[in-house]
Amino acid sequence: MTKELIHTDEAPAAVGSYSQAVKVGDTIYVSGQIAIDPETEELIDGDVEAQTKQVLDNLTAILKETDCTLKDVVKAEVFLDDINNFDSVNDIYAEYFAEEPPARACMEVARLPKDVAVEISVIAVK
Questions:
Q1: Which of 10, 104, 111, 119 has its CA 20 to 30 A from that of 60?
Q2: Which residue ranges run through the membrane (predicted)?
Q3: Annotated catalytic residue 68
């Protein structure tokens, strides 16, 4: 199988040496997204809810580049800088994954890139 690197200008550019996503066969592996505005390439101002919305919008844009939607996501990983934000993040997450939510892991980590509050990565199958 061939590996296809995925890129869209509708989502922020990678902040390191990685691809926004990689497609192998019918599976799309989307790198962790943080709350960067793709137009300015800057972190957005806002609380954890605003950050979560931006992260999910970024994921949606990358999936769209592969003709996928959030309905195609089979696994998500949510990283929080404070597990006390779980309910706030979960409420926003549930709005985006209202139908057929994927399997998910959620964990608190010591620190996230650019000191954001939330990072999410997903795997989708088309």
A1: 111
A2: none
A3: no
**C-beta of residue 4 within 8 angstroms of C-beta of residue 22:** yes
Our CA dihedral for 16, 93, 51, 32, rounded to 10 degrees, sits at: 0
Q: Strand, helix or coil at 60? A: helix
Q: Does residue 85 contact residue 118 with C-beta atoms inside 8 Å? A: yes
Q: How far is CA 45 from the centre of its chain?
A: 18
For residue 93, what are the contacts with CB-CB under 8 A and spacing of at least 6? 52, 56, 76, 78, 120
Q: What is the SS3 assignment for 113?
A: helix
Domains along the chain?
3-125 (3.30.1330.40)
Which of 97, 119, 94, 92 is CA-nearest to residue 108? Answer: 119
Is the pLDDT reported for residue 90 higher than 90? Answer: yes
Write down the pLDDT at residue 15: 81
User: Tokens 């992260």 identify what position?
Assistant: 55
Please say if the pLDDT value at position 47 is more than 90.
yes
Q: Where does residue 86 rank: exposed (0-12), middle (13-18), buried (19+ CB within 10 A)?
A: middle
Q: What pLDDT shows up at residue 1?
A: 80
